[in-house]
Write a structure and sequence with these properties.
With 320 residues, this protein is of the alpha+beta class. The chain has twelve helices and 14 strands. The chain starts with a helix and ends with a helix.
Length: 320
């Protein structure tokens, strides 16, 4: 099955998502042919060419009077003969991507214009029942701060709770999670919620988990007739996952308390033991990322314990 992770990583590394075919192949690997529908020629030519050695400066593209084209190294490296098609920039086709994503996630496709660069745009509307529609955006940010700004912008645009898709979790931080929670938005990474199969792009089981988290985050309540095609939640199993994270956090807090008091006894300034990231906590107890996100969204006690672990004064008073 083709792996889209390299595509999502490329979008975050280069939000303009424009490159010559050789770089697309190098970035995406053997799955290049499978994403052909998601990229298209831009009508513009590149001014430099990726170094075939995989390191060093890019090669300059030179056009000769006889019509020949070459990529020339400025440091005595390789020189390549090229065809016009080799230097044509191809870019991610965001209209095509929006249409395919909306279909995979069962959204009503948006027909709004997509800005350039396409750092934030509406993919479509999630309609769990008639007259209840919620915007789903895609944000391609170059930093956590830019992602936080995009979440705020999406919330203002939607004027109600919304979902913000990101290529991966790489720009997620505790601050971006807090910003999303403050505007009743939920972040969802494409590398977890969609996959490529023989029939094209399709939603994974994780997408339903994020939708459930969105309903809780936005305090949405639906009648019993609303099922959204998802099976009943196994509450007992979910509570066990929360307990695993809670116990791991408590273990960390106790270690942080011991370290701080040991410093005081040695007449040193106590310092807060760095709090592990939420996903690292999940890895310690073998939970998937979407389970960790869901647990923190659903359990206020777990969120409070998380904040507690980030305060030296609270940590030193643990158990008193």
């Amino acid at each position: 099955m083709p792996d889209l992770l390299k595509l999502w990583r490329f979008l975050e590394a280069r939000p303009t998502a424009a490159a010559v075919p050789a770089e697309w192949r190098a970035r995406v690997g053997d799955d290049f042919a499978d994403i052909d529908s998601l990229i298209s020629p831009s009508g513009m030519d590149a001014t430099c060419y990726p170094n075939p050695r995989g390191r060093g400066l890019p090669l300059d593209i030179v056009r000769y009077p006889d019509g020949a084209i070459a990529a020339v190294s400025t440091d005595g490296g390789p020189q390549l003969k090229l065809n016009p098609s080799d230097i044509e920039l191809h870019k991610a086709s965001f209209p095509a991507m929006r249409k395919i994503l909306a279909k995979a996630l069962s959204l009503q496709t948006s027909h709004e214009s997509i800005p350039a660069p396409a750092k934030l745009f509406r993919v479509g509307l999630w309609e769990p029942k008639p007259a209840a529609a919620y915007s789903v955006f895609l944000a391609i940010a170059e930093s956590p701060a830019e992602l936080s700004a995009a979440v705020h912008s999406a919330a203002r645009d939607a004027r109600k709770p919304c979902i913000v898709l990101t290529p991966t979790r790489v720009r997620w931080t505790d601050d971006t999670d807090a910003v999303a929670a403050s505007v009743k938005a939920v972040l969802a990474p494409l590398d977890e919620i969609v996959q490529m199969n023989s029939g094209g792009l399709a939603a994974t089981a994780a997408w339903q988990e994020y939708l459930s988290g969105f309903c809780r985050q936005a305090d949405l309540k639906f009648t019993s007739s609303f099922t959204n095609k998802r099976p009943p939640r196994k509450r007992a199993g979910f509570a066990a996952k929360i307990e695993l994270l809670r116990n791991e956090l408590i273990k960390h807090i106790k270690s942080a308390k011991d370290a701080a008091h040991t410093a005081v006894q040695a007449d040193l300034e106590p310092k807060l033991l760095p709090r592990p990231k939420k996903m690292d906590l999940g890895k310690r107890v073998d939970l998937k990322p979407y389970d960790v996100t869901r647990c923190f969204q659903d359990d206020s006690g777990l969120r409070q314990l998380w904040r507690f672990a980030g305060n030296l004064h609270d940590v030193m008073r643990w158990g008193k």
